[in-house]
């Protein structure tokens, strides 16, 4: 099951939220793993992003945003005989600030604000905190 909600509450303020639930497990294989989760990704994922673009004359063009992602524990393998191997649950937070004028947009983003050590679905270590800048030219 997946669901997504996009809300534009007032001019310049929006929220994007999502939730997914995955109940996948092995059947008709062997007694050691039947009914157990295998390499299927996390059972639950949640994402949230909140953004505000200032509307007041003095700050018009300036915007800020923040949000994050949550993944529950993700099993790589489970066995009644050998136990389980899984990726732990995690929360990663991000933020951005930008300025938009007629033909240009510049933004600065921080991913993984808390410098959380976490692992991706292919058991690879994900990026530590990182900073990025973006300059866009509108033609």
TrEMBL record:
Q: Origin, by domain of life?
A: Bacteria
Identify its membrane topology class: Multi-pass membrane protein
Which positions fall inside the TonB-dependent receptor-like beta-barrel domain? 13-113
Which key words tag this protein in UniProt?
Cell outer membrane, Ion transport, Iron, Iron transport, Membrane, Receptor, TonB box, Transmembrane, Transmembrane beta strand, Transport
Question: Would you indicate the residue range of the signal peptide?
Answer: none
InterPro entries (alphabetical): Beta-barrel_TonB (IPR000531), Beta-barrel_TonB_sf (IPR036942), TonB-dep_rcpt-like (IPR039426)
Subcellular location(s): the record lists: Cell outer membrane
- Family to which this protein belongs: Belongs to the TonB-dependent receptor family.
List the protein's name.
Answer: Outer membrane receptor protein involved in Fe transport
Phylogenetic placement of the source organism: Bacteria, Pseudomonadati, Bacteroidota, Sphingobacteriia, Sphingobacteriales
